[in-house]
Design goal:
The complex is a heterodimer. Chain A is mainly β. Helix content of chain A is 0%, strand content 58%. By secondary structure, chain B is mainly beta. The chains are: A mainly beta, B mainly beta. The interface between A and B is medium-sized, with 22 and 25 residues.
Chain lengths: 114, 114
């Protein structure tokens, strides 16, 4: 069964600290993996998209990694800011599939405290 | 417009009533997607449009749900005879083409069925 599991479910960190969010997937055939940030009451915003051949991709203080062999991805946030408080959603797409073949994780809710 | 817009932002309705949700995609985007996000759940794909046609309707939960897109722009999602389990945030997204490029999300419509 195609699934995307994210951990932890929620996380609280202090401003200025780093954190890493995990995403494990059992999606095949794999096309790409995306990380989205969703602020409360807003739609998701794309952070990174990685294909099979990409191991890492950065977007400012956000760095995503992908290990296609172990089917794991991580999102590392450096020097966290209060504005990083949001849900982070991992999405994996099936190769050759239609847009109906985007498999969404349930997200990790990150709270950054002052 | 600058981004994807949706209306209404909030909708409260009584069980059994019909509701219509509207999405205005980014100008020039040919692909448009509808998702549903229930409390504590990941995003659930409903339907997508390439132009005015909907190649993939596999995600619509029942025949009470329908969607249309006219002029390759605005789309409406209609839910007939609403049920309490229809309560969720309905998100619309658009992308330049349907080939799995970055999707830009609207803020969503929060539907509450009493």
């Amino acid at each position: 069964k195609n699934q995307v599991e994210q951990s932890p479910q929620s996380l609280i960190i202090l401003e200025g600290k780093n954190c890493t969010l995990q995403c494990n997937y059992t999606v095949s055939p794999f096309s790409n993996l995306r990380w989205y940030k969703q602020d409360t009451g807003r739609g998701p915003v794309s952070l990174t998209i990685m294909t099979f051949s990409e191991n890492t991709k950065s977007n400012g203080r956000y760095t995503a990694t992908l290990d296609a062999d172990t089917k794991q991805s991580s999102l590392h946030i450096t020097a966290s800011q209060l504005s990083d408080s949001a849900s982070y959603i991992c999405v994996v797409s099936l190769y050759g599939g239609s847009q109906g073949n985007l498999i969404f994780g349930k997200g990790t809710k990150l709270s950054v405290k002052p | 417009g600058a981004g994807v817009s949706q209306s209404p932002s909030n909708k409260v309705t009584e069980k059994g009533k019909d509701v219509e949700l509207r999405c205005d995609p980014i100008s020039g985007h040919t692909a448009l997607y509808w998702y549903r996000q229930s409390l504590g759940q990941g995003l659930e794909f409903l339907i997508y449009f390439q132009g005015n046609s909907a190649p993939d309707k596999s995600g619509l939960p029942s025949d009470r749900f329908s969607a249309e897109r006219t002029g390759g722009s605005v789309s409406t999602l209609t839910i007939q005879r609403t049920q309490q389990e229809d309560s969720a945030v309905y998100l619309c997204a658009s992308s330049l083409t349907y080939q799995q490029e970055t999707q830009y999300f609207g803020p969503g419509t929060r539907l509450l069925v009493l």
